[in-house]
Amino acid sequence: MSILKDNLKQLYYFYETVKNENISNAAKKLFISQPAISMQIKKLENCCGIQLIEKKNSKRIQPTPEGRKLYDYLDKIFRLMDKAEIELKKMADEAQTHICIGTTPTYGKFILPYIFENYASLWPQCHIKVTSESSISLLERLKQNKLDVIIMALWKKLSLKNFLVYHLGREEVILLSSPNHHLQKQTRTCLRDLQTEKFIMRDEQSATRKYILREFKKKGITLPVSIECESPDLVKELIMEGKGIGFLTRTKIRKELAAGLVQRVELGEHRFYLDIAVILNKNRPLTSEMSTFVDCIIKARHDKHFSTNLAPSI
Fold first, then answer.
1. Is the pLDDT reported for residue 271 higher than 90?
2. How far, in Å, are 117, 129, 130, 171, 298 from residue 112 at the CA level?
3. What percent of the chain shows pLDDT beyond 90?
4. Which of 78, 126, 276, 299 has a CA between 20 and 30 Å from the CA of residue 219?
5. CA-based nearest residue to 202, from 192, 194, 213
6. Torsion sign over Cα 38, 41, 46, 49
7. Closest CA to 18 of 59, 52, 57, 45
8. Other Cβ atoms closer than 10 A to 150
9. Does CATH number 3.40.390.30 belong to domain 171-273?
C-alpha cells in the first residue's frame, strides 16, 4: 500500500498551502475551512511520520526541508495532471461533432424548431450553432468554410459554381397591406399602379428584394422603396401599422394572414415564387452527419423521407 497514493487529497491541500504560503489563502482557493486544511495536513504528517510545514511568522508558513522536497515532486505531478486534463478536454471536443448552420431571418424560424426537435435527437453528441445573416454574407462565409451549410432563397444572378445545391421547393412571395389599406377596396390591382405606392422592403442584400425588383423591372416597372428595414419582422410590423405595402414570403406571414392582421393585395394572375435550397461547399467532403442533416431538412419541408444519397445540382 502506498502512503502517498492513498492520500492524494491531503497531498493537494499541502501543495496549495505551501504554494500560497498561507493556510487562509489556500482555504479560500479550495473553498474549505482553515481548520479542515490544518487537520488534513496533520494527518498527512502522521502518515509520513515527519513534519512537513512550520510557521515562518504569525501569518505565513513555510515547508520544512522534507516538505520542500515533497512540494517539488508534487509541483511536477500536479502540473502534469493539469496538462492531462487540458489534453483530455481537447480530445473530447474533437470527438464531438460541430455543425454551423447559416440561414436568413425568415427561414431561421422555420428550421430551428425542427433541428432541435428532430436532428438533435438523432445526433445528441452534435453541437449545433445557428447564425442568421443576409444571403450574400452567408454564401461568403460558406465559401470560407466558416459555415457548414446554409438554407436560403435563390435568385437567378446568384453564382453557385462553388456550391452543392439541394432544392427544397418554391416559396410564394406575397404582396401585403394592412386590412384597411385602400388597395383592399379593389378586387385586383394593376402592376403599374403599384409605382405610386409606398413600399417597405428589406435592405439591398435581401434575396426577396432582389427577386421582386428584378421581376418588376422585366415588366418595365420600377417599385419605389420608401422604407428599408434590416429584418423581415420590422417589414411585417410596419405593414400591419399601415405605413406602406411590401412583399414577404408565405412562411414569414402565415400566422398574421390567418389572424387577419394583414391581407393579400390581389394581383390577378401574377404570382411570385422564390426557390429555397440547402447549400453546401462543393470543395468540402460531405460527412455522414451533414448527409443526415440535409435529409432531415428535406423531410421537414416535404413531410416524407428522402435517402441521404441526395442528388444535388452543381
1. yes
2. 9, 10, 8, 18, 14
3. 35
4. 276
5. 213
6. negative
7. 52
8. 25
9. no
Given this model, what pLDDT does residue 314 score?
A: 43
* Span 67-92, pLDDT tens digits: 999 999 999 998 998 888 888 877 76
Using DSSP's 3-state secondary structure scheme, residue 186 falls into coil
Q: Say how far apart CA 158 and CA 206 lie, in whole Å.
A: 12
Q: DSSP secondary-structure letter at 195?
A: G
Cα–Cα distance for residue pair 196/201, rounded to 1 Å: 15
- By the 8 A CB rule, do 99 and 129 touch? yes
Residue 305 has pLDDT above 60, yes or no: no
CATH of domain 5-92: 1.10.10.10
The CA distance from 40 to 10, in Å, is 5
The reply to whether the predicted model has a pTM over 0.85 is no
Task: Judge: domain 98-169+275-302, CATH 3.40.190.10.
Answer: yes
227 in helix, strand or coil?
A: strand
Angle at 254 between CA 248 and CA 255, to 5 degrees: 125
Say if strands 163-177 and 149-154 run parallel, antiparallel, or are unpaired. Answer: unpaired
Angle between helix 8-20 and 23-30 (nearest 10): 120
Q: Which amino acid makes up residue 279?
A: I
Q: Where are the domains of the chain?
A: 5-92, 98-169+275-302, 171-273
Using one digit for the tens of pLDDT, what is the confidence trace for 229-244? 988 889 999 999 999 9
> Do 98-169+275-302 and 171-273 show the same overall fold?
yes
pLDDT tens, residue by residue, 31-62? 888 888 999 899 889 988 899 999 888 778 89
Write down the mean pLDDT value for the chain.
83
The tally of CA atoms less than 13 A away on the side-chain side of residue 145 is: 5
In sign, the C-alpha dihedral spanning 25, 30, 34, 37 is negative
